[in-house]
Amino acid sequence: MGTVPTGVRGLDALTDGGFPRGSTVIVEGAPGTGKTTLGMQFLHHGAVSDGEAGIYITFEEFPDQLYRDMLAFGWDLRKLEAGNLLRVVAMSPDVFLEQMTEPGGLLEKMIRELDCKRMVIDSISLFRYGAADQEEHRRTLYRLRNILRKFELTSLLIKERGTSTDVSGFEAYISDGFIALQLKQQMEKYRVRTLEILKMRGKRIQEGEHVYRITDAGIHLIPSRSMVEDRSLLKGQTKVPTGIAELDRLLGGGLAKGTVTLLDTNSKANYKYMISTVLANRYEAGDHILALLSSFNTPQDLKRMFAMQGLSLGQIAREDRIYFIEHYNRRYPEGCEANVIDVSGADSREYRHILRERFGPVVEQGLERGDSWFIYYDLNTVISERGKDHVMKFFAEETASIKSLGMTMMVMCNFSEIGPECSAYLERTCNGVIRTWVDGNYQYLQVTKSPNGVISEPYIVETTDESPFIRLM
Ligand SMILES: Nc1ncnc2c1ncn2[C@@H]1O[C@H](COP(=O)(O)OP(=O)(O)OP(=O)(O)O)[C@@H](O)[C@H]1O
Ligand SMILES: [Mg+2]
């Protein structure tokens, strides 16, 4: 079918290149939101960049005014008209419909003459006034849509927002795309223009409201979250898959090796599955694991979760493939005891000392063999046992040495519990941040920071009966 670029770069990025060719897209917005500007940008871009002729139908404005307004964006409409790449037609809605439906009528002639590909109608709201009732209005729109299709025009139908003449949902129903422009009050102080794509047939769209500005070059849209798939993979960087398919896709293959990723989660969120899934996957991928489990996530829990994935925690420990940092003096499953680094009761200095003494040699032996390490670190435990000061003082140093050894680390933390200052510090220190939270009956997950600058949209976390037990929707 092909895609028709709109000339609004951010909008094209959100719609995977532009509108589907031949589609009818409604742009709805209150007065002054930039509908006319968007429509003209679409036609101007088509004419100048793609050599596609367009027709602009206006029921309200005098062309002279329009020419002047658009010249402010550097769009010389008269020149395009002279080159047969544009027609601006001012007429009444009644005449338009009459001419449009009449075979060989004025519009059909014009479309054929120009070999017109794009059309903007400003605005379809006015048809309502000529219609006897809603039923007739619907018929009119339906007829219009069919005519636009017949001529294979990619068209943008402008619609006023918030008039009492709304035919609720019908336009959205018959159109291929629906875009809403809004001027929103934000934080009481300033207003922000937002664009939302509510529908775009045959396209993967990015949900949410995206901010745009009207600049000297027309509409400039900034997608609220960068497109993830398109920019995947930092070249040459080794990825450490988590085993959660959608998360790995979001991350361009997985966590980047030798980086620290923070997982921010509130205690209600069901994260145990996630952790055990990631750890089990890292084991199966050949990693050595160091785990610091929280007071909620007991060694027995982990054993059970591993068993659900067909793995024996004791066996893995006997292979020296997993070690534990233990703060609560808990009993570990059979086979694990020798690999537990007990730090319960140790103060900050002793803690660092014990880790160096016990873990240092393990790492060094493995370095020669080229072992790869995955560290799971529950920072809430460290904070509650050693205090925020310990973290603020040592975390950057600890993570720096972990990174320098090429180890990959996932840090669990609850931002809402540790306060803004410490959260901000951690967010800066870590290479990536994944947030999960519970809202109502759903758990959500979003990548809010990643080494290659990619940010995802929020996903719903769904628990499933089979490994890997969680799925992102
Ligand atoms: N060069 C410019 N820079 C910044 N803003 C501009 C510029 N030119 C126009 N605007 C703003 O663009 C808005 C008008 O855009 P436009 O006429 O496309 O809106 P509209 O949705 O068609 O409005 P209406 O419903 O009244 O027809 C105004 O708010 C105006 O202030
Ligand atoms: Mg307008």
From TrEMBL:
Keyword hit for RNA-binding: no
Keywords: ATP-binding, Nucleotide-binding
Keyword Nucleotide-binding: yes
SUPFAM superfamilies: P-loop containing nucleoside triphosphate hydrolases (SSF52540)
Molecular function terms, GO-annotated: ATP binding
Domain KaiC: 2-235
Protein name: Circadian clock protein KaiC
